[in-house]
Structure formats: structure tokens, C-alpha cells
């Protein structure tokens, strides 16, 4: 794939600039194509690719000044990730991960299927307490990595990869069911407009519940050899009471969670509670981590990849390249009032390359939802449904780790390769299309949000 994308990138650089695309936009698109190839194949370390993107944005004129190339490093989401990673590290270092891992192994009685099922059931339950998928992943990855180690399962085994793929790819889906569940629902609801918390839950619960279930079954089938064989080793349960470090970790995590859940009241960005937790966890006599432990074990690659992917997404949006690409693709969608499902299929198909090239979900949503709603209105279709459909098409998939903070957390631990994540992303693209047609559209019609709200002349 890399040779193909490299060739496309070079061609984009050398091609005469279209009249309705700025030279900066042309450069940004070319850089994005190359970055996708490098991130998907890991020819270079992912953080190195990210920093190379920053340099290329400046050298090839994709941004007006070098400060714009560093845009992602000034965004709160990058520091939210640092706080979340620190919470996960504290769960591990305090001994809480080991205690939870032993508990889960005892509950599943060594049955591989049961361990996987426990993880899947934890996603929707923990969403009510920890709405952010990144937070859940940052904590659960330490717990299940410990469980796998205690039971003697190798990191490269099919069982390990199945559990980590679930954390990487479908854990996020539980968050979107709630309007307060993360960036995707908040941005989408604001772009669509007039969607209450309860209405959002009604609209999203069934399609996303089916999406999560089908994704889980697909992972089980792909890694089915990991669910065969002898039962897992079940270590003895620790009878000791919780240590002071464990109690402090629990208290700080609950405090951060309460601040996240009450954001409608205080209006703080999620990064602020995460940084408050970070400060507490590293403060003497309060926290459980030393600065040396944080510095050594935090996984700095995650920070650099996320920040540089945000810079790339910002360059695509500010230069007009993202909107230009989306408009060119959307123009190919058939506006046929007699065949509304063809219009829907066209919207889903053109959303795929846009999602591939724009690493940041916010950028993808900001470009595609307004365009999809405009196409829907012009076709006599329900604009809300059209906007929600492209959201599902983009949110259900991850093609490379730089597209999601939670995916970066998993990839950093070395359980999954970028190529493996890309292949599963392609499969989930097909799943998202099928669920959009087979589940979402009929269900939304049943709850009062039909595809054809407007009469056909």
C-alpha cells in the first residue's frame, strides 16, 4: 500500500493546482496521503512520522506559519491523553490492576470465552461511570494485560490480540450511545442540532448496540484459535485488604470521573479533570507515582502521534483541502429522489476516503455532516438521518492508530500491528454499511425519524 500512496502523494504535489483548491490545500492533501501510508505500514516509528508531518507542513507551504504546524500541541485533547495514561499507569503501579486481573480470572474460572465476554460487558457498564473510551482503555489495558500475564498467555497469542482488538476498535462504540460520551456524539449533535440527551440515546442505542455486538463476533471469528485449548491458569485471590496506594488511586479516579460526569454543570473541558488527576497522582503523599516512573513508563509516542495528527487535520481544514476533497466526492453522489437508498449508499461510500485521509474524527465530522445534510435536503431526504449515517460510517472504523487516542494506547503496548488494525478497519467499514441499511434506517423509521421525511414531488 505504501508504494501506491507514495505515488499518489508525489502525483498530488506535481499535479497542476485545481482552480478551486489553494496551493496550501494541495500540499496538505499530498502530505496527508503520505502520512496515511507511513502510519498504516509503520515503515518509520509512528511518532517519527508525526514529526515528519510537522516539518513537511512547513517546508511545503501547507500552513501559513510554523506555529500552525504545531497546532496539535496546543490542543487540550493531547493533554487529556496524558492524564488518562497516568491514571492507567497508577492503576498498574499501585497493584490495583493485579487485584482486578485476579478477580476477573476467578470470575471466568479460567474459561477463555468468559474472559472475553466479561470485557465486552464492561464496555457499556463502565461507560456510565467513565464516558470517555480513552479513559476506559487506559485503565482496562493494564488490567487485562496483567490478567493475560498471570494466566500465562503470550502477548502475540490469538487470545491476547482478540482482547486488545476489542479495546482498540469497539470499546469506543459504547461511548457514542451517550450524548456526553465523548467527542463524536458532542460534535455530531452540535452540527445536526436539536437533539436532546434522551433523543440521542433512543436513536443511537440500537444501531450502536448491534454494531458493538457484530464487531465483537467478528473479532471472535478472526481470532477463534485463541478461544480454543486448555483453560487459563487461575492464580490465587489475594486476601489482603486494599493498600493505601490502591485507595488513593481509586479516590483520584472516582474524583476525575465525577468531574467528567458533571461537565454540564461546570462546563470544563475533559482535559482539566484529567490534568487535576495527573497532578494528584504525582504529588508526594497524595499520589502513587514518582516523576521517574511517569517519565519512564508513560509512552510518550502516544502524545506526539496524537498532537501531530491534530496538526495535520487542522492543516487540511484550514487550507480548504478537506472541504475540497469532500465536495468533489459528494458531487458524485446521485441526487435521485426516486431512489433514496442509492443516495444513502453514495454518502456512505464517499465518507470512507475522507475518513481515511483525515486522522481526526472532529475534522471528519465537521466536513462530512454538513455536506451530507445538504445532499439529503436536496434529495428530499431527512437531513438528520443523512448526518447520522455518515457519522456512523466514520465512527465505526479505525484505519490506523493515529485516528484515535484509545487506539494509540493499545498500539503502544505492541499487541497489535498497524496493518492488523487497518485490515479490521476495512472489515468494519462493510459492517457499518450493512448496519446502516439493515438496522439504523428501519429502526429510526420506527422511532419517528424516517429517511424520507419530505414528500416526493
TrEMBL record:
Transmembrane segments: 20-39, 46-67, 73-92, 113-133, 173-193, 200-223, 272-291, 303-327, 339-358, 378-400, 421-444
Membrane topology: Multi-pass membrane protein
Pfam families for the chain: Na_sulph_symp
Top-level taxon in the UniProt lineage: Bacteria
A GO CC term attached to the entry: plasma membrane
Keyword flag Cell cycle: no
Entry keyword set: Membrane, Transmembrane, Transmembrane helix
Compartment(s): Membrane
GO molecular function, one term: organic anion transmembrane transporter activity
One annotated GO biological process: carboxylic acid transmembrane transport
Organism the protein comes from: Entotheonella factor
Protein name as it appears in the record: Sodium:sulfate symporter
Amino acid at each position: 500500500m505504501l508504494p501506491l500512496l507514495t505515488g499518489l502523494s508525489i502525483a498530488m504535489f506535481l499535479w497542476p493546482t485545481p482552480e478551486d483548491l489553494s496551493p496550501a490545500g494541495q500540499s496538505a492533501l499530498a502530505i496527508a496521503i503520505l502520512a496515511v501510508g507511513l502510519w498504516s505500514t509503520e515503515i518509520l516509528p509512528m511518532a517519527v512520522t508525526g514529526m515528519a508531518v510537522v516539518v513537511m507542513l512547513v517546508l511545503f507551504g501547507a500552513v501559513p506559519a510554523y506555529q500552525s504546524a504545531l497546532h496539535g500541541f496546543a490542543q487540550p485533547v493531547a493533554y487529556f491523553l496524558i492524564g488518562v495514561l497516568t491514571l492507567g499507569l497508577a492503576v498498574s503501579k499501585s497493584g490495583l490492576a493485579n487485584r482486578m486481573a485476579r478477580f476477573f480470572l476467578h470470575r471466568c474460572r479460567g474459561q477463555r470465552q468468559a474472559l472475553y465476554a466479561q470485557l465486552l460487558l464492561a464496555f457499556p457498564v463502565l461507560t456510565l461511570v467513565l464516558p470517555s473510551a480513552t479513559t476506559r482503555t487506559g485503565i482496562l489495558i493494564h488490567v487485562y494485560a496483567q490478567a493475560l500475564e498471570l494466566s500465562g498467555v503470550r502477548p502475540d497469542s490469538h487470545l491476547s490480540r482478540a482482547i486488545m482488538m476489542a479495546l482498540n476498535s469497539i470499546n469506543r462504540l459504547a461511548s457514542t450511545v451517550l450524548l456526553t460520551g465523548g467527542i463524536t456524539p458532542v460534535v455530531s449533535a452540535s452540527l445536526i442540532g436539536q437533539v436532546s440527551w434522551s433523543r440521542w440515546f433512543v436513536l443511537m442505542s440500537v444501531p450502536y448496540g448491534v454494531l458493538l455486538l457484530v464487531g465483537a463476533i467478528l473479532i471472535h471469528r478472526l481470532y477463534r484459535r485463541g478461544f480454543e485449548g486448555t483453560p487459563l491458569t487461575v492464580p490465587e485471590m489475594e486476601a489482603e485488604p486494599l493498600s493505601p496506594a490502591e485507595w488513593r488511586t481509586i479516590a483520584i479516579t472516582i474524583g476525575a470521573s465525577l468531574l467528567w460526569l458533571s461537565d454540564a454543570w461546570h462546563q470544563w473541558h475533559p482535559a482539566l479533570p484529567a490534568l487535576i488527576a495527573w497532578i494528584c497522582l504525582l504529588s508526594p503523599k497524595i499520589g502513587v507515582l514518582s516523576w521517574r516512573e511517569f517519565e519512564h513508563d508513560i509512552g510518550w509516542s502516544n502524545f506526539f502521534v496524537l498532537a501531530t495528527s491534530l496538526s495535520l487535520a487542522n492543516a487540511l481544514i484550514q487550507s480548504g483541502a478537506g472541504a475540497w476533497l469532500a465536495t468533489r466526492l459528494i458531487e458524485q453522489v446521485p441526487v435521485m429522489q426516486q431512489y433514496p437508498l442509492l443516495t444513502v449508499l453514495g454518502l456512505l461510500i464517499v465518507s470512507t476516503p475522507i475518513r481515511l485521509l483525515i486522522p481526526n474524527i472532529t475534522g471528519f465530522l465537521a466536513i462530512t455532516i454538513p455536506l451530507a445534510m445538504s445532499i439529503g435536503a436536496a434529495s428530499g431526504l431527512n437531513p438528520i438521518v443523512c448526518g447520522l449515517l455518515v457519522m456512523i460510517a466514520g465512527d465505526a472504523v479505525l484505519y490506523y492508530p493515529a485516528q484515535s487516542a484509545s487506539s494509540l494506547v493499545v498500539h503502544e503496548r505492541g499487541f497489535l500491528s498497524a496493518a492488523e488494525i487497518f485490515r479490521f478497519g476495512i472489515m468494519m467499514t462493510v459492517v457499518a454499511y450493512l448496519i446502516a441499511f439493515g438496522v439504523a434506517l428501519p429502526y429510526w423509521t420506527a422511532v419517528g425519524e424516517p429517511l424520507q421525511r419530505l414528500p416526493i414531488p
